[in-house]
């Protein structure tokens, strides 16, 4: 029988691009991430979800090298990268919005993205002469800026951008680096409702390319529903569910561990705003 979900299942036949095996970190006696094993495949967008303090950001930090694991391993194309620092992992194709360059506050939006394009093309950061002769790279930078909806802010200093626009600039920089593994930590946080679709559309187009491995930490259920091929749920540092969105959302453990908590928080917020 035809399985309508088959086309979005992670391609098990292919080796994962990124993998964690028994990954963990302890802060004092507290296991913030505890024995997490998961594999991420090209062409798949995996949403990492869970209540506040579940360990999502810490898990991201372990994958991207921001934090050293105290247990387990991280594999990239089967190579053990557990001991590589964040910069080396970035060079190997793991891209994460905030870690990449941090924004250069005094440089303009275009200049910030320009540097990312330059570094991708290994033209070096100080080779102004090379840069001037590479009008195509400027054009690429412009396109990345345009794609995140910042065309009108091209010459604005990064420091002067609103929080939402800074997030967009981070995403533009990430895109300019063309990483194979794209890690997005709440990419629409701090954006107004009308700004969100620009970023979601960009992520959807990135996903449609089919060759990227995308990991997304996200709280917004509508974002998860529209983009995720797969959901990994963390709770108290442990992986408690991993599967197709519909089955994960329906599972009792998620209803209790995640959705229940969110509902309570939303209700509290609604009461507070009433
Ligand atoms: N550097 C640190 N030192 C000590 N404890 C930490 C550190 N970083 C994170 N933790 C703890 O680890 C746990 C997981 O935190 P983490 O930020 O990863 O959760 P999260 O799921 O990303 O939460 P949120 O949705 O609120 O961002 C929390 O209990 C947190 O207090």
From TrEMBL:
CDD domains: ABC_Mj1267_LivG_branched (cd03219). InterPro entries: AAA+_ATPase, ABC_AA/LPS_Transport, ABC_transporter-like_ATP-bd, ABC_transporter-like_CS, P-loop_NTPase. Keywords: ATP-binding, Cell membrane, Membrane, Nucleotide-binding, Transport. Residues 18-261 form the ABC transporter domain. PROSITE patterns: ABC_TRANSPORTER_1 (PS00211), ABC_TRANSPORTER_2 (PS50893). GO terms for molecular function: ATP binding; ATP hydrolysis activity. Pfam families: ABC_tran. GO terms for cellular component: plasma membrane. This is Amino acid/amide ABC transporter ATP-binding protein 1 (HAAT family). It comes from Pseudacidovorax intermedius.
């Amino acid at each position: 029988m035809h399985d309508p979900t088959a086309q979005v299942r992670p391609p098990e036949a292919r080796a994962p691009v990124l993998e964690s095996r028994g990954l963990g970190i302890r802060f004092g006696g507290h296991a913030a991430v505890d024995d997490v094993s998961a594999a991420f495949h090209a062409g798949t967008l995996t949403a990492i979800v869970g209540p506040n303090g579940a360990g999502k950001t810490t898990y991201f930090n372990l994958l991207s090298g921001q934090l050293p694991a105290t247990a387990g391993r991280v594999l990239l194309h089967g190579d053990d990268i557990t001991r590589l620092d964040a910069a080396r992992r970035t060079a190997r194709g793991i891209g994460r919005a905030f870690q990449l360059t941090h924004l250069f506050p005094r440089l303009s939006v275009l200049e910030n993205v320009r540097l990312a394009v330059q570094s991708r093309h290994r033209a070096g950061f100080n080779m102004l002469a090379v840069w001037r002769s590479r009008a195509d790279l400027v054009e690429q930078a412009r396109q990345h800026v345009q794609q995140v909806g910042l065309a009108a802010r091209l010459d604005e200093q990064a420091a002067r951008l609103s929080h939402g626009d800074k997030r967009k600039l981070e995403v533009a920089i990430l895109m300019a680096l063309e990483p194979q593994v794209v890690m997005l930590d709440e990419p629409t946080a701090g954006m107004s409702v009308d700004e969100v679709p620009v970023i979601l559309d960009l992520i959807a187009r990135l996903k449609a390319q089919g060759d990227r491995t995308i990991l997304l930490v996200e709280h917004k259920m509508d974002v998860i529903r529209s983009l995720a091929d797969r959901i990994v749920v963390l709770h108290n540092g442990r992986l408690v569910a991993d599967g197709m969105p519909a089955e994960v959302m329906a599972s009792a453990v998620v209803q209790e561990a995640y959705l229940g908590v969110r509902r309570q928080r939303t209700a509290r917020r609604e009461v507070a705003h009433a």
